[in-house]
Design goal:
With about 150 residues, the protein is of the alpha+beta class. It has 1 helix and 8 strands.
């Protein structure tokens, strides 16, 4: 009986210790739990082209990037989902020809970062474009010494 109570006390102590160390992480898991999956309509600017990446934050507010074409001329596009509709944004400046495959990540309804590469392999060049509100800004990306084919994702 003594062994069982010592074992039970040890188990309780370990559980309390584990709970104490894990509680900061448990809060973030619990906060993320009420996520709701929604299917949004395709942005009108994407019809006939491709949505390459999307990122959503609370609201929901989403930003999507992709490419499309007129005849043989490709172009990049961006669009924001807000108040139940898509609005066209200026295209990310890092790849006006639409031959990149950017990935976008938003941390708020007014800030996103698109990264990727432009050009055909070999000879890719990394791109990093920051979206603040509805204005894009290209950011410099250092290239590793000796690199001839470099992408940023």
């Amino acid at each position: 009986m003594k062994r069982l109570s010592v074992l039970c006390a040890l188990t309780v102590a370990l559980a309390c210790t584990a709970s104490m160390f894990l509680s900061p992480f448990m809060g973030s898991v619990a906060a993320a739990a009420p996520t709701i999956a929604r299917t949004l309509p395709e942005p009108p600017v994407a019809v006939g082209g491709q949505v390459q990446s999307s990122s959503c934050v609370a609201g929901p507010v989403c930003v999507s990037v992709g490419w499309n074409h007129h005849g043989n001329t490709g172009y990049s596009w961006a669009a924001r989902w807000h108040d139940q509709e898509w609005s066209k944004l200026p295209a990310p400046p890092g790849d006006p020809g639409g031959d990149s495959s950017p990935t976008i990540s938003c941390s708020s309804s007014t800030w996103c970062m698109a990264t990727g590469s432009t050009g055909m392999s070999p000879g890719n060049h990394p791109i990093a474009d920051e979206l603040i509100g509805s204005k894009w800004k290209s950011l410099p990306v250092p290239t590793p010494k000796g690199s001839t084919d470099f992408s940023l994702y």
